[in-house]
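In response to the reviewer comment on reproducibility (Comment 2.3), we provide here a single inverse folding case reported in full, input and output, so that an independent group could reproduce the run without further information from us. The structure tokens appear first.
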């Protein structure tokens, strides 16, 4: 039997993963700025300049930043999906409306799939797929945050519903505001402000995922793999059983 346990202090892994993702995203931004691919967030965008606005997609549009971009998004999607599954298992015996818990997991899973589309299909290579991934990540990710905020207050795990729920509602509101500002500013061609809203949106989402460390510290997750005690059949024995079965059928 193989057993993998989640130790009482293992909740810190959630914070560590989020910090690592923030660092890697920051590295991608600084690489793009250093290579003069994008305008720094602190500067004003000049339309006549050869540099692009500092959107996340533009920051990871050309190598070497695109290589970091793909790696970061794939890792973020994987870690996000694992967090979603653990959260689903944590809430499963507590939630009175299973559809709410299931819909939350589905929303985050699709958002994580959208991250892989954003990371692996750069804007310059496949704009349509890249934008679909962006809408999936931002839209479904924000939906996941709102659903989890509601569930947090309803379930009230270890009487910490308000302690975790209020910050999550604040972060969900900030996510929604940033997303609305992002699309509104793009429509008005205010690219620098839109890019800042996009970066803020990503940081708020990572901060939201980090809040699950509050409740994960109470959990003990186990992955159990048991060996089959029956001895494996040889190839000849398998064929003999098949032939006997066929003769019985005749």
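Designed residues, in position order:
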């Amino acid at each position: 039997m193989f057993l993998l346990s989640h130790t009482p202090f293992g909740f810190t892994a959630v914070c560590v993963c989020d910090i690592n993702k923030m660092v890697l995203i920051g590295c991608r931004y600084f690489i793009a700025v250093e290579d003069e691919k994008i305008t720094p967030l602190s500067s004003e965008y000049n339309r006549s300049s050869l540099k692009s606005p500092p959107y996340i997609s533009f920051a990871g549009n050309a190598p070497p930043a695109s290589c970091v971009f793909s790696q970061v998004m794939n890792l973020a999607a994987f870690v996000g999906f694992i967090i979603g599954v653990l959260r689903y298992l944590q809430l499963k015996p507590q939630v009175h409306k299973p559809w709410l818990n299931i819909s939350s997991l589905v929303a985050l899973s699709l958002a994580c799939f959208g991250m892989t589309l954003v990371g692996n299909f750069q804007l310059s290579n496949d704009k349509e797929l890249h934008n679909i991934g962006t809408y999936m990540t931002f839209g479904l990710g924000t939906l996941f945050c709102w659903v989890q905020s509601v569930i947090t207050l309803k379930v009230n795990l270890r009487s910490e519903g308000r302690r975790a729920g209020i910050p999550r509602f604040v972060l969900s509101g900030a996510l929604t505001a940033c997303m609305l500002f992002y699309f509104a500013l793009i429509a008005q061609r205010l690219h620098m402000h839109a890019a800042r809203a996009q970066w803020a949106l990503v940081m708020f989402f990572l901060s939201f995922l980090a809040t699950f460390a509050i409740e994960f510290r109470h959990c003990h997750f186990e992955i159990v793999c048991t060996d089959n005690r029956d001895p494996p059949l040889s190839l000849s024995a398998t064929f003999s059983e098949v032939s006997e079965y066929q003769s019985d059928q005749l």
